[in-house]
From TrEMBL:
It holds the Pfam family PfkB. Signal peptide: none annotated. This is Ribokinase. Keywords: Kinase, Transferase. Gene3D superfamilies: 3.40.1190.20.
Amino acid sequence: MKDICCIGHITLDKIITPKDTVFMAGGTSFYMSYGMNRLPNDVSYQLVTKVGKESLDEVENMRKLGIDVECHQSNKSVFFENKYGDNTNNRTQRVLAKADPFTVDEMKGIDARVYHLGSLLADDFSPEVVEYLSTKGLISIDVQGYLREVRGENVFATDWKDKERILECTDIIKLNEHEMEVITNSKNPRTVAIKLAEMGVREVVITLGSYGSVIYAEGKFYEIPAYKPNVVVDATGCGDTYSAGYLYMRSLGAGYSDAGKFAAAMCTLKLEHSGPFDKNIEDIKNIIK
């Protein structure tokens, strides 16, 4: 049995920043897997993904680095275009191709304590898939994909279809300040956290960009600082890097505050370059100091 299993599509990403345009792989599963792979091997990890043949090289690259990847076949891989302005919190997004959703049958052979669902688009994980996985382990969800509706090539913020049904099975949820407003119509992270807890979520993690993050669990709030990066290069994958750090530390038995600080430090290091987290545990500890 694995400690953590991340399930999600590996994407093809076109990232446009004021400095340049980069083509690379991406998606929650990509950033999470590389982040986990840079940490000490004290937590066992598996990635379950579903890609078109255009992404099979990327799957092989991950396996060569020692990442345990179970790969299912999709007609196409997801293809995102992310365009950032001078303010990295603002992003416009287009979807140039979509991958096939995950199915219950594909979930039957996997075994983990925590399933982290890296949703990228609203139909990646049906309620049936989430309900099935919740009978096998804890469910951790990054809400971003559930709030993205594709019309043509454009992505529109949408309220979460089947929200109540999925949240009933969800143990850990991660969302940012924009997503919390879409879900609850509130701009107050504390109000949002309490609302989500009332819907059945045990650990609510809300990231607030350069303002840090807030964790709500067992009726208590934990304020997590944001550590200042030396330079801000690329915010793509920061939220997924946070999830990697948080779930890694929680799997080791760390408390909410320590897990949040570790995750925030990983994000700071990730912000300083394009691509996935590439530092190590000592670098993370130095940031927290």
